[in-house]
Amino acid sequence: MRTLNRIVTATASVVTYVALLLAITAGIDLRERNAYHDAPAQYAAFLAALDSRSPDDAHAVDSWFRAHTQASSRADASISLGTDAVDDGDYDLARRFTDDVAEKIAEDQQGFDRRFAEAWARALPWLVIGAILTAAALALRHWRRKQNADVVEVVNQFVPPRPWWRRPVFLVVSGIGYTFLVSGFFAFITATRAYELPWAVRGLVFVGGFVTWPIAYFLLKHSRPRSTRSAAQALRTDWRKPVLYLRGFGDDPEAAVVDEQPALTSSGLLSIHSREEHLIGALRAFGPVVAVGRPGEQLPHLGAARFYLPGDDWQSGVLRLMELSQLIVLRLGDGDGVWWEVDQARDTQPPGKLVLLIPGGRPDLAERLDAHLPKPAKVAAHSDRWTSDVVVFKEDWTPHVQPVGPFPGDKKSPAPAMFYVAQAMQAALREIGVRRRAMGPRTNSLPLAIIGKVLLLIPAFVLVVYFLRLLLLW
Questions:
Q1: CA distance 96 to 82
Q2: pLDDT digits (tens, 9 = 90+) for 14-50
Q3: Does pLDDT of 2 surpass 70?
Q4: Contact at 8 Å (CB) between 400 and 393?
Q5: CA-based R_g, the chain, Å
Q6: Which of 77-91, 99-113, 154-168, 411-425 has the lowest mean pLDDT?
Q7: How does 328-367 read in b/e, with b if 16+ C-beta sit within 10 Å?
Q8: CA-to-CA distance for 343 and 318, rounded, in angstroms?
Q9: Phi, psi of 433 (to 5 degrees)
Q10: What 3-state DSSP class applies to 401?
Q11: Is 90 exceeded by the pLDDT of residue 349?
Q12: From the CB of residue 229, how many other CB atoms can be counted at a distance below 10 Å?
């Protein structure tokens, strides 16, 4: 159903875009046809100019015909010849050139009618198909929203109100930032690899690309947190049950670190996505990912969609979300709240629902974990990675520990660190019978999504240009 929804929505978007473009084109043709209805009056004005021997009036009519006729207009050609004759002072010749303009105007009007009819005939099927597909997409969206209605009802209680305009405005700002980012990337590629260009041109392109990066960074730094979906919005857009991501708030600064990605850096594209964003990208293979936000934070951290529980009764909200979630991903930490969540997941949830992420270099947390489990996991956790091990559980609470690679002796890989965390999660879940494909590649899909978003701006820009042209002509 999710695949069908995506196909229908994507197809509806493409068809609607083409339909709108064709409809606007037909509107432009209609506007031009209606404007040409004044041609007989303009011709009469030209004849009056000949009678009064007024070159200025003749030129005014000539300018009107040039602005309102097609390139193949015979009436325009005759008026133009008549105006040239007026400039030479031969008004009799001007009359001979324009004697049959009335018949040519009628031909032009038929041409405008035919052009509009053809344009409308092209647009109408697309409009009908687009309307049907849009209705289907909206119906699927309504069905999708109903699937998570119980979760949305719970989460919506803990989502702070935001101005309705904030997200749309900052989505536009983010789009501009992404455009600068991708423009800088292509400028860098052009400057370093287009060897046929002169050095001066390559230098200017490189400087231009270099300048766009700080602009992109500034715009994205301020717009991306303000354009994120709330937890309720994220749940409404996906019919699948959510993934609940739990961690101590003290882990947020490390989760916000942007790790270097050699494959991107070497190609000229800056990495702007944090560890949590990459992790959540992998977890979206299961469904929308939600997390409890730190109380009092002005802007949400990027990654899981945030909701905010009251400080005096946060446990009941977490328990309710545990019950409604299909998967609980819990990252161990020092806070007592994290260990309370471990105990509650152990006591109230099926074993296969819980995934534990063990921080690297924290054998103390691994040892403490064994005291909270029915069967000890005996995790080493000696590596210095952000996440060193993944722990999942079979039906009898037997733990399965999956270390996170790459391991000593492996060749250095250009993949981001979160790629290996996702691979370890996928392998661990496979051991207990839960299969999700491509969790690793999902962590590296964010840069491709940036380019895709920028490319989507091109047809949007074309549509806006056509619409503005229609408004200006009207």
A1: 8
A2: 899 899 889 988 988 888 898 899 999 999 999 999 9
A3: no
A4: yes
A5: 32
A6: 411-425
A7: bbbbbbeeebbbebbebbeeebebbbbbbbbbeebeebbe
A8: 12
A9: 90, 10
A10: strand
A11: yes
A12: 15
Q: Percent of the chain at pLDDT above 90?
A: 52
CB atoms within 10 A of CB 189: 15
Can you tell me the distance from the alpha carbon of 151 to that of 16, in angstroms, rounded to the nearest whole number? 32
Give the separation between CA 154 and CA 307, rounded to whole angstroms: 10
Strands of 81-128 (E only): list them. none
Per-residue model confidence (pLDDT) at position 412: 55
| % pLDDT > 70, the chain | 95
Q: And the tokens for 458?
A: 């091109």
Q: How far is CA 348 from the centre of its chain?
A: 38
Judged against a pLDDT cut of 50, whether residue 336 lies above it is answered with yes
Report d(CA 220, CA 447) in Å as an integer: 14
Produce one character per residue of 254-292: b if its CB has 16 or more CB atoms within 10 Å, e if not. ebeeeeebeebeeebbbbbbbbbbbbbbbbbbbbbbbbb
Nearest to 8 by CA among 95, 113, 133: 133
Contact 385, 279 (CB under 8 A): no
**CB atoms closer than 10 angstroms to residue 72:** 9
Residues in the chain: 474
Question: pLDDT for 367-404, tens place per residue?
Answer: 999 999 999 999 987 777 889 999 999 999 999 999 99
Among 30, 180, 203, CA closest to 112: 30
pLDDT at 81 over 50: yes
Residue 458 has pLDDT above 90, yes or no: no
Neighbours of 125 (CB within 10 A): 12
Residues in a beta bridge with 401: 391
Planar angle of CA 51, 54, 59, nearest 5 degrees: 115
Phi/psi at 166 (nearest 5 deg)?
-65, -50
**What's the pLDDT at 266?**
46
Q: β-strand 305-307 against 289-292: which pairing, if any?
A: parallel
In the numeric block, the tokens 């400028």 are attached to 187
